[in-house]
Design goal:
CATH topology of one domain: Structural Genomics Hypothetical 15.5 Kd Protein In mrcA-pckA Intergenic Region, Chain A
Structural class: alpha+beta
InterPro entries: S4_RNA-bd_sf
Strand order of the largest sheet: 1-7-6-3-4
Number of strands: 7
Protein name: RNA-binding S4 domain-containing protein
CATH architecture of one domain: Roll
Keywords: RNA-binding
Organism: Nocardia arthritidis
CATH superfamily of one domain: RNA-binding S4 domain
Largest sheet: 5 strands, mixed
Radius of gyration: 11 Å
Low-confidence stretches: 1-10
Mean pLDDT: 90
GO molecular function, one term: RNA binding
Shape: globular
Strand content: 25-35%
């Protein structure tokens, strides 16, 4: 994974990332949370098994996330929050 793949900002607790709707797809959320740079990078890191949702590896880019779900990649975490 390159430094461009995951934007580096150190954190131990998840950052709340508000969404407008009730659900958001994993690939979209990774971009919204600034954890990756592009949709193609989302596809790559998800397919490689580098993304965890609620502490479980997730390989479906279209996985629907709901408020409270926590997404982790390379030690960085973001939580789906209400807008």
């Amino acid at each position: 994974m390159t430094s461009r793949t995951v934007r580096m900002y150190a954190m131990s607790d998840p950052v709340d990332v508000p969404i407008e709707d009730d659900v958001i797809r994993l690939g979209q959320f990774l971009k919204l949370a600034n954890l990756i740079d592009s949709g193609s990078e989302a596809k790559t890191v998800i397919a490689a098994g580098l993304v965890r949702v609620n502490d479980e590896v997730e390989v479906r880019r279209g996985r629907q996330l709901h408020v409270g779900d926590v997404v982790a990649i390379a030690g960085h975490k973001a939580r789906v929050a209400v807008a």
